[in-house]
Amino acid sequence: MAAEPEAQEPKKKLPIVKILVMVVGAIVLIGVGAGAAILFNKLTKPADENPLAIVIERKGAPAEADAHGDAAAQAEAPKDAHGAAPAAGGHGDGGHGAPAPSGPTGKPVPSKEQFVTSYFEFPGNFTTNLRGSRRFAQMSVALATQYDKKVIENVQKHEVAIRAEVLALLAEQTEADVIGVDNRKKLQVLIRDAINKLLNERVSFGGVEDVYITALVLQ
Q1: Fewer Cβ in 10 A, N or C end of the chain?
Q2: C-alpha–C-alpha distance, residues 134 and 34, integer Å
Q3: CA–CA gap between residue 104 and residue 205 (Å, rounded)
Q4: What are the chain's domains?
Q5: pTM for the full model?
Q6: Using CA atoms, how far apart are residues 196 and 13, in angstroms rounded to an integer?
Q7: pLDDT digits over 34-53, tens only?
Q8: Residue 11 and residue 19: Cα distance in Å, rounded?
Q9: How confident is the model over 67-120, as pLDDT tens digits?
Q10: Closest-CA residue to 195 (of 211, 182, 179)
């Protein structure tokens, strides 16, 4: 009769094992539920209080513009073949944006006070023999001034004296002195100075600024 209780002892241990398994399972379920609750609480917090949500938003959401609205646009703007961002306008070919600069600006044109130039041509020709030559020169003369009409009036008033002075000057020239562009320019300066000298003597003011030989013939 004493052997029967020993044979029934293993049967009493089975309920204890089941209880331990159930306790451990309950603890595991409680831990999982608590962890899920904590995670859900963190995820449902506002973005400014939840660091995890901030990280997710920054990685998953598109970049937003800064306070001026241009930082993100510059970061995400496509580059052209040379690595530069396309010009404003939306199509890279001018579009509807601001026009491209036309290039470097030039220097401003300096302003200068302008005066009217008056011209006067002596009627007829100046004809005289040349020095040391049997040939004579036939010359047409005109002058210019930027002074008022009084200068031209003085020239016309003293035309006879001026013609005599110019003929005397021309008669002192040789053939070589009147041939060639440079020699004619020198002769024009001599005639201008002679006319101004005569006018200064007669009316105390010359005013003739340029003299032009409009025709010169050697015969």
Answers
A1: N
A2: 135
A3: 49
A4: 16-58 (no CATH), 118-218 (3.30.479.30)
A5: 0.51
A6: 148
A7: 666 666 666 555 545 554 44
A8: 14
A9: 444 544 454 555 554 555 545 444 445 445 555 556 678 888 777 777 899 999
A10: 211
